[in-house]
Amino acid sequence: MLSEQVYARLREAIMRGSYAPGQALKPQDLAKEQGVSLAVVREALVRVVGDGLADRLPNRGFAVPAFSDRRWQEIAEARRTVEPVVLRMSIERGDVDWEARVQAAHHRLARTPAFAPEEGEYFSETWAEAHRIFHRTLLEGCGNPVLLEGFDRMWSASELARRWSAHRTPDRDHLGEHRQLAEAALDRDADAAAEILTRHLTLTAAGLVDAHDER
Fold first, then answer.
1. What contacts 124, CB < 8 A, 6 or more positions away?
2. Alpha-carbon distances of 29 from 4, 33, 42, 52, 215, rounded to whole Å
3. Are 98 and 140 in contact (CB under 8 A)?
4. Are 71 and 61 in contact (CB under 8 A)?
5. Measured between alpha carbons, how far is 157 from 51 in angstroms, rounded to an integer?
6. What's the domain range around 20?
7. Does 78 share its domain with 107?
């Protein structure tokens, strides 16, 4: 489907940083670049807005979200409030199969390079997917699909900002943070796991503030 192709290309371009925070996404220009109709471009843009990767501005068209503290910090606050609670439930309810999935997801994440030269300065698509799977797998032991759907929405909403901030914290020990999180969860130490996850999410939020200040 043509709109699906345009959507996929536009989404990838935003994720790769081809558009700066706050930059306008002009339907006419995009239609010309892509060689498609305005209707197709608008349909793709509406989907991108739904993903949280663009804003629809009253009487001003579409734009990449601005790198504002409030937008990203509110998402971070929501994740710090919800995810440690769900992780506690997951540790309490998760079975041996859940433990095996956590181990496998962590192994995949640890063995996947975070950056690929051909994909620019942001996290690679392969690492980003391994990262998502690891965090989601940690929570899947809760057995509550409604909570997991909430995680999926918040994760999608924060993915763009996470990529923007990736190169702003080069000294951050992502491998160590994820290893500690996996170990605490598999040790069934809910208090430690919740504390580690909260700190992990807080460091990401702090990186976003730093990135915004530098801009």
1. 112, 113, 114, 115, 116
2. 18, 6, 12, 21, 26
3. yes
4. no
5. 7
6. 2-63
7. yes
Task: State the CATH number of the domain containing residue 10.
Answer: 1.10.10.10
* pLDDT digits 0-9 by tens, 171-190: 788 899 999 999 999 999 99
Query: Whose structure tokens read 């095996």?
Result: 100
Across 33-189, where does the E strand assignment appear?
A: 55-57, 61-63
Rg (CA), the chain: 18
Domain identity same for 59 and 83? no
Residue whose entry in the numeric block shows the structure tokens 């799977």: 133
Threshold 0.85, pTM exceeds: no
Count up the domains in the chain and report the number.
2
Last residue of a domain, one of 29, 46, 63: 63
Are 148 and 160 spatial neighbours (Cβ–Cβ below 8 Å)? no
Higher pLDDT, 2 or 180: 180
Using CA of residue 10, residue 53, residue 161, residue 154, what is the dihedral sign?
Answer: negative
| Cα–Cα distance for residue pair 123/110, rounded to 1 Å | 14
- Does 185 share its domain with 118? yes
Domain stops at, among 11, 37, 63 = 63
Please report, for the domain that includes residue 99, its CATH number: 1.20.120.530
Contact of 108 with 130, CB cutoff 8 Å: yes
pLDDT at 170: 67
**d(C-alpha 185, C-alpha 200), whole Å:** 14
Q: Which region holds residue 35: left if phi is over 0, alpha if psi is between -120 and 50, else beta?
A: left
Distances (CA, A) of 22 to 6, 19, 184: 20, 8, 39
